[in-house]
Design brief:
Order of helices and strands: EEEEEEEEEEE
Number of strands: 11
Distance between the termini: 40 Å
Helix content: under 10%
Structural class: mainly beta
Radius of gyration: 14 Å
Largest sheet: 7 strands, mixed
Number of helices: 0
Shape: globular
């Protein structure tokens, strides 16, 4: 059974930095697309950043220049480096990956809380 486990959330002051990590485990043949989503209270879940298995990355306009997504294919991990954090970045951040397994489908982590507040 495939699992995605996130770590690295917490409370940070505006302008600070956090690094989120997500590790995939289980019977995995290949990990294709990996991404980070976030959902703030009362808002819809939004895509923050995604990265293909070749390393090509895309970002939401709201985080461009501040967040960096990266992955380690050998370890099955994806990370999100978040700099210059703003209060509006406060949300539950969830890892998502499209994984070749049984079954082959998108998988989700449990989510980790990021709170940006003074």
């Amino acid at each position: 059974q495939v699992q995605l486990v996130e770590s690295g959330g917490g409370l940070v002051q505006p302008g600070g930095s956090l690094r989120l990590s997500c590790a995939a485990s289980g019977s995995i043949f290949e990990i294709y697309y990996m991404a980070w989503y976030r959902q703030a209270p009362g808002k819809q879940r939004e895509l923050v950043a995604s990265i293909g298995n070749s390393g090509s990355a895309n970002y939401a306009d709201s985080v461009k220049g501040r967040f960096t997504i990266s992955r380690d294919n050998a370890k099955g991990t994806v990370s999100l480096q978040m700099n210059s954090l703003k209060p509006e970045d406060t949300a539950v951040y969830s890892c998502n990956a499209f994984i070749s397994s049984v079954p082959t489908r998108p998988y989700w982590g449990q989510g980790t809380q990021v709170t940006v507040s003074s």
